[in-house]
Amino acid sequence: MTHHSAGAPELMPVLSRGKHRTPRNGGCFMEFASYLAGESWSDHPACTHPALASLARMVNDCTSDAARSRLTSLIPSVIGLRGDDPRVGLLVALRAATEALPVASMERQRALAVGILTCERNLAGLDDSSSAGVTSLVRRAFEQAPDTERWARDFIGFVGSRPRSKFTAQTAESILRISVPGIAEACVPDADARLYDLLAQAIEDCTRILAAPEAARSAPVPVLR
Fold this sequence. Notes:
Elements (H helix, E strand, L loop, with lengths): L28 H8 L13 H13 L12 H4 L8 H14 L5 H21 L4 H13 L2 H14 L9 H16 L6 H20 L2 H4 L9
Helix pairs in contact: 2-4, 2-8, 2-9, 4-5, 4-6, 4-8, 4-9, 5-6, 5-7, 5-8
């Protein structure tokens, strides 16, 4: 388990789904992050990178009511993880897609496979030193769903002659919107645990890049687990 299990502050209110106007009505993961960061109450606070914050909101909403309170231990860890490093959105999306691919429904798997290859290609273009860690993560996912890789490569080959669109925040958001519900609705007994681990691992990834911005500019992307 990651180091984020240290625990949340005492007297933290109970997490609940969705957006809340005030703490009196409850709060989601990122709303309580905004509170702890000293910002105005919001589920889109400035204290956290938008891609990681989006993942946190989705995990919060897709986790069952019985298991959601466990997420409170991770809230302090997202505060301060912000910056404009283009690797962050790519890594968050890649982490989510690779975790979802082996368990998601067939309807989602093809889109996830294309998303994985897209993230891998874009990360390789940004930082060659990241290739080993990223490749390991991608290989592990595709080994569990090999048919999806073949389909995705054929699809990308078919459309490859067309202009490639730039990877944007909207691209990452689209991948997350397929990945997180794909895990939550999967026919597995540990969906809540998988969602928790996904968010914890994404926080670890972002911490290595964003916690020390000056050093991170020359640091390789972390070796992903």
